[in-house]
Amino acid sequence: MSRSAGRRHRGRRLALRVLFELEGTDKDAAETLRYQAEDECAPADVTHYAQELVYGTLRHLDGIDDAISAASLNWRLEDIGKVERAVLRLGAFELLFEGGVPSAVAIDECIELSRTYAGDEAAPFVNGVLGRIASGAA
I need a labelling partner for 125 at 20 to 30 A (CA). Which of 37, 64, 105, 110 fits? Predict the structure, then answer.
């Protein structure tokens, strides 16, 4: 893994932690990001990348949730586990709104995050939903 790819991975992991913590609360995104970045000992470039991901996801949340709902066959958004939902939101943001990230990279990163934080059984679900979003089948 290249140094920049490693930093992007760390940024995604940090963004996931922030999105997970923010869901269902009225916590301040900037304060949550600051706290999580401090907890992770994240350098400025990792924190900056996570900030772009978090704020972008929050800014486009309605459209992201619509895409996830359309792509998650037989699952309502509120029935998807909180970790998986946060991973899917992060991945859907990258697929739909971040043109510089190859779809395969965004999906692979989210599969790895889902394995790490939700277990191996979450990976096929995340892969399927994000694959449908990437293909435009959602």
Answer: 37
Encode pLDDT of 94-134 as tens digits.
999 987 889 999 999 999 999 999 999 999 999 999 999 99
- 42 contact partners, CB below 8 Å, separation of at least 6: 10, 11, 14, 36, 50
Tell me the fold of 3-135. Answer: N-utilizing Substance Protein B Homolog; Chain A (1.10.940)
Where are the domains positioned within the chain?
Answer: 3-135
Rounded distance, CA 16 to CA 25, Å? 15
Residues with Cβ within 8 Å of 21's Cβ and at least 6 positions away in sequence, in order, are: 27, 32, 36
CA–CA separation, 69 vs 49, rounded Å? Answer: 26
